[in-house]
C-alpha cells in the first residue's frame, strides 16, 4: 500500500526508516519531510498543517494509510477533517481526533481528566489573566520549587520550574500578561513539584486494545547535568534501568488502563499513540503530562528496538485489531544524541553545511532539521539538526557509539550534550 507520514523532524525520519522496511509498504511519502526522509521516501512540498493539500495528496497518490507525526495538526483537528471527506472514507489514519488530542492540547483538560479517573499526578491549580492576582497569592503560599505550564502547545518550551517566588511570578506574568507563548499561555497550570526521576512510556492503542512500546528517558535541558532552559529534547535512552517489571506493571495498572477506560467513558475513540510522561517517585509512577503522539527524540530510540513489522502494528491499530498483533522488542540498549544549532533553544542560524556524515558507521542518522541544497550537500534547517542513534548490548557501549558519531559530524555552531545516558550508568553502578 501507499503510505503518507505527516511531519518534518527526527521522529518522522525514524517513522519513515522503520516503515520503509515493511513488505506492506509500496510507496512512501512524507510531507514536508527533510533531507533524511528523502533518502527513504518521496518528500511532498506542503506543510503538515495544510489540510486541503493533505486531502488532495491522499486522493492523487492513492494513499491507504496516514500517520500524523506532530501534535499541532492533531490538536487542530486534521483527523476530523480527513474523516469528514467522503472520498477519504477508506483511508486508515493513525492519530487521535481533536477531542482525543486535548490530552496534549490542553494541560488543564488533561489534569481534570486525571483527577476524574483517579490517575496519579501532581496537585495543581489553573489560572487565567482574570485570576492573575489570585494566582500570585497562590504562588506566594506554595512550597518551592513550583512548576508552571502553559496550557496549550508551546513546542516543548512552555514548562518553567521555578526555584524561587520571583521566578514563578515572572513566569506567570510572561504567560498571562505578556503572551510569551501566545494563545498557548491563556491559561497557566501551576502544579506541585514532584521529586524523582523522569521517564516516558509509549502506548499504541486502537481505542480498546493497546501495546506498551519500549520506555525511554529523554534529556530536555540544553546544558549538561540538566541545566539551562528546556528544549525539544537533547537525547534519549531506551530501556530505562530504573523502570523494572514491578514499576512498569504499576504504570500499566494505575495509568495506562485507567487512561484508556477514561477515554472510552468520555466517548473518545482514541486511535494512535499516547506518550505518558512520568515521574518515578520512590517507586511510584505519577503522570507529568500526556502527549497525543510519539515523542522526539524518544522515537529515535524506541523504534529501533521494535522488531515486529511496524506497518502491521499500525494497520492493526487503525482496524481495531491490535489484540491480534505481536510486539517483539530487542533487548539491546538504544542511545541517541541530538546535534543542535548554536544558540538553540533561542535564536539560531540555519543553512550551515553538514560534513562528515559519510564517516558515520554502525549508527543510525536521523535528520531532524535539515534540507538538501540541490548540489548534493545537506544543510542545517532547524534548531535540532540530527539525532544519532546507537544500538549496543550495554548502555555504556551505546553511549560511546552515539557520542563518537556526535563528535564526528561537523557543522558551524554545532552543539550537543556529552552526558546523555551517563546518569543511568551511575544509577546502574
From TrEMBL:
It catalyses: 5-phospho-beta-D-ribosylamine + glycine + ATP = N(1)-(5-phospho-beta-D-ribosyl)glycinamide + ADP + phosphate + H(+). It is an enzyme of class 6 (ligase). Pathway: Purine metabolism; IMP biosynthesis via de novo pathway; N(1)-(5-phospho-D-ribosyl)glycinamide from 5-phospho-alpha-D-ribose 1-diphosphate: step 2/2. The lineage of its organism: Bacteria, Pseudomonadati, Bacteroidota, Cytophagia, Cytophagales. Its EC number is 6.3.4.13. GO terms for biological process: 'de novo' IMP biosynthetic process; purine nucleobase biosynthetic process. HAMAP family: GARS. The keyword Cytoplasm does not apply. One of its GO terms (molecular function) is metal ion binding. InterPro entries: ATP-grasp, ATP_grasp_subdomain_1, PreATP-grasp_dom_sf, PRibGlycinamid_synth_ATP-grasp, PRibGlycinamide_synth, PRibGlycinamide_synth_C-dom, PRibGlycinamide_synth_C_sf, PRibGlycinamide_synth_N. Residues 111-319 form the ATP-grasp domain. Keywords: ATP-binding, Ligase, Nucleotide-binding, Purine biosynthesis. Belongs to the GARS family. This is Phosphoribosylamine--glycine ligase. It holds the Pfam family GARS_A. The keyword Membrane does not apply.
Amino acid at each position: 500500500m501507499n503510505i503518507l507520514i505527516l511531519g518534518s523532524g527526527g521522529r518522522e525520519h525514524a517513522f519513515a526508516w522503520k516503515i520503509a522496511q515493511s513488505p506492506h509498504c509500496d510507496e512512501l511519502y512524507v510531507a514536508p519531510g527533510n533531507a533524511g526522509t528523502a533518502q527513504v521516501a518521496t518528500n511532498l512540498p506542503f506543510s503538515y498543517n495544510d489540510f486541503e493539500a493533505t486531502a488532495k495528496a491522499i486522493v492523487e497518490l492513492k494513499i491507504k494509510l496516514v500517520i500524523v507525526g506532530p501534535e499541532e495538526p492533531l490538536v487542530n483537528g486534521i483527523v476530523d477533517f480527513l474523516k469528514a471527506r467522503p472520498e477519504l472514507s477508506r483511508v486508515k489514519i493513525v492519530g487521535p481526533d481533536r477531542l482525543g488530542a486535548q490530552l496534549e492540547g490542553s494541560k488543564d483538560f488533561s489534569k481534570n481528566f486525571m483527577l476524574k479517573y483517579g490517575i496519579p499526578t501532581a496537585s495543581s491549580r489553573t489560572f487565567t489573566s482574570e485570576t492573575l492576582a489570585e494566582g500570585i497569592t497562590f504562588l506566594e503560599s506554595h512550597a518551592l520549587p513550583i512548576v508552571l505550564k502553559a496550557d496549550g502547545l508551546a513546542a516543548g518550551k512552555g514548562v518553567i520550574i521555578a526555584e524561587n517566588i520571583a521566578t514563578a511570578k515572572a513566569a506567570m506574568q510572561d504567560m498571562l500578561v505578556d503572551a510569551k507563548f501566545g494563545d498557548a499561555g491563556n491559561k497557566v497550570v501551576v502544579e506541585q513539584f514532584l521529586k524523582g526521576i523522569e521517564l516516558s512510556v509509549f502506548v499504541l492503542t486502537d481505542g480498546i486494545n493497546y501495546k506498551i512500546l519500549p520506555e525511554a528517558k529523554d534529556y530536555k535541558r540544553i546544558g549538561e547535568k540538566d541545566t539551562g532552559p528546556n528544549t525539544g529534547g537533547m537525547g534519549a535512552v531506551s530501556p530505562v534501568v530504573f523502570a523494572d517489571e514491578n514499576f512498569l506493571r504499576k504504570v500499566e495498572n494505575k495509568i495506562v488502563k485507567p487512561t484508556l477506560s477514561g477515554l472510552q467513558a468520555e466517548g473518545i475513540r482514541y486511535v494512535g499513540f499516547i506518550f505518558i510522561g512520568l515521574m518515578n517517585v520512590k517507586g511510584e509512577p505519577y503522570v507529568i503530562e500526556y502527549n497525543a503522539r510519539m515523542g522526539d527524540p524518544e522515537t529515535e530510540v524506541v523504534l529501533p528496538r521494535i522488531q515486529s513489522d511496524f506497518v502491521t502494528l499500525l494497520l492493526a491499530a487503525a482496524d481495531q485489531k491490535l489484540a491480534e498483533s505481536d510486539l517483539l522488542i530487542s533487548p539491546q540498549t538504544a542511545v541517541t544524541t541530538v546535534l543542535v544549532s548554536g544558540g538553540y533553544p533561542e535564536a539560531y542560524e540555519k543553512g550551515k553545511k553538514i560534513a562528515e556524515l559519510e564517516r558515520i558507521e554502525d549508527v543510525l542518522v536521523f535528520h531532524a532539521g535539515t534540507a538538501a541544497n540541490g548540489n548534493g550537500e545537506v544543510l542545517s534547517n532547524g534548531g535540532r539538526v540530527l539525532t544519532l542513534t546507537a544500538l549496543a548490548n550495554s548502555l555504556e557501549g551505546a553511549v560511546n557509539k552515539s557520542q563518537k558519531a556526535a563528535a564526528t559530524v561537523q557543522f558551524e555552531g554545532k552543539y550537543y550534550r556529552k552526558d546523555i545516558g551517563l546518569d543511568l550508568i551511575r544509577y546502574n553502578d
